[in-house]
Amino acid sequence: MEEEELKKRIDPEKLPRHVAIIMDGNGRWAKNQGAERTFGHRNGIRAVRDAINACNEIHIPYLTLYTFSTENWNRPQEEVATLMTLLSETLIEEETEMITKGLRLHVIGDITALPDMVQEQLRHVMDITRDNTRGNLVLALNYGSQREIVKAVKEIADEVKDGSLQPADINEQTIEEHLYTKGIPPVDLVVRTSGEVRISNFLLWQIAYAELQFLDIYWPDFTKKDFFNCILNYQNKERRYGKTSEQIQ
Ligand code: IPE
Ligand code: IPE
Ligand code: MG
Question: According to the CATH classification, is domain 15-144+187-235 in 3.40.640.10?
Fold first, then answer.
């Protein structure tokens, strides 16, 4: 089916509020054509734009993209450097687009470990898009879910220590308020490309009841059509949250 046809079939009443994507397979995509891994990262940017545009067209309010994990620092130094350069170049290119499209940029993860220039650019784009309300783009950068949970536990322990919080009052909401994703709705749909079926330390708390879809394509081949297909599949699921099917209908 063509992209427009797929888009028309999407039910605007049953859209996910938050889609999170594990953009995987750039290296293998490049290797398949005898190129360097970084060639795959460069070609992945078109797919990033497609995902953002697809969300914008059908009005999905939150899109989170797993862009660089806490574990990705263990890659060869040149590859890490190229990823940082690409991030920086793309931020410059996308600045005006984000404003035109009414998108607000958020970052989850510890950006203080990123190169100074990238940090400045991120802060700048977050700042100039602060009042945008049409959609939210969340970049997971130097993000690791376990580290995020450790950070939350430390902050909560400090509040208990200084007496501002009683242990008996700690609940799910307390945890959520100390995660990077504070204020961002839970994830409804996770999409991972590359054929790998794993979560790789991504949003462990936030995906508690998310639908998961694993696609057998590499990230640079991902298109809007794939995105719309994911949404259509998502709309065919019955989200029961522990209830029975009869209770839902
Ligand atoms: C995803 O593609 C991009 C990042 C993790 C930054 P990979 O670089 O992981 O590609 P594969 O999985 O090695 O093919
Ligand atoms: C996950 O992909 C991280 C990002 C997409 C940024 P990886 O390619 O790093 O995941 P693993 O290590 O193979 O699971
Ligand atoms: Mg990978």
Answer: no
